[in-house]
Write a structure and sequence with these properties.
The chain is an alpha+beta fold and 300 residues long. 32% of the residues lie in helices and 11% in strands. It contains 9 helices and 7 strands. The longest helix has 17 residues.
Length: 300
Amino acid sequence: MTGSSAAWAADRLRAAPIEPVGRFADASNATLLVRLCDRDQPALEDLAAQLGRQPGLEDLPAADLAVYKPMRGEAPLWDFPVGTLHRREVAAHEIAVALGWDLVPLTVLREDGPYGPGSLQRFVAHDPGLHYFRLLETGVADVIEQLRRMVVFDLVIDNADRKAGHVLLADERRDAAPAVADRRPAPSFASDELPGPRAGVPVGEQVAGNVQVVDHGVALNVDHKLRTVAWEFAGEPLPEGAVEALTGLAAGLDADVGERLATLLDDDELAVLRARVERLIELPALPGPIGPRPYPWPPI
């Protein structure tokens, strides 16, 4: 995505009218697929009439979709402050950007969502069959390197729920934004549930592309919470450039990055984050399983 199209995508997430068109039925918290309605898209009923069937996800450009997690749909947790999970989603994206790693889809805070304040994240078109375990088996060297960076990122945010299904390989054929000058009407997807996965990559075929990681609502706690499926890199050196990225993040936490995160996290959470980053800079190698419950359940 070019600089101009990235800026346009960010502006759309922050300001475009939002229309719910589907839901992720298996999510622990309310998670809605929404359409950004700023390009004169046809009404859902009109599109259904044109197609002669109920529209499917493939009928809508991914650039017109986003994932909306309203605060009012967050399940209460005993170990996280009530009503803060959506803010942690936004904070995770801010941290990834500060690291200089394109790992987390653009995520913003929207106060005017259809169900109130919540996070809004750019939808990533992907094959659900290409989750972490499959990428580990079939990814080219660059994909594996991105997974290593993900491991460091999860250490930074102390991710309490890195399941394999939270690791996506962007489908560039559907994920590309339309040209800024070509904002034609887009079709829509109308359903209570998302469609099933598309055809997967044949076993044995190597895959390449941009790894994107999602679902960071249960992260950035003051207590150690790290749970992840990604322990395969234990004992390896930190990925190339990681120390420099962490050092840059540490500096940012005492400047503009810290100022932005202060609107999303409380003072104690921010202080623990700073201390965690400083420790990671000195880390000789990626750690192995830590704590009594190092794996999430279910793993995918």
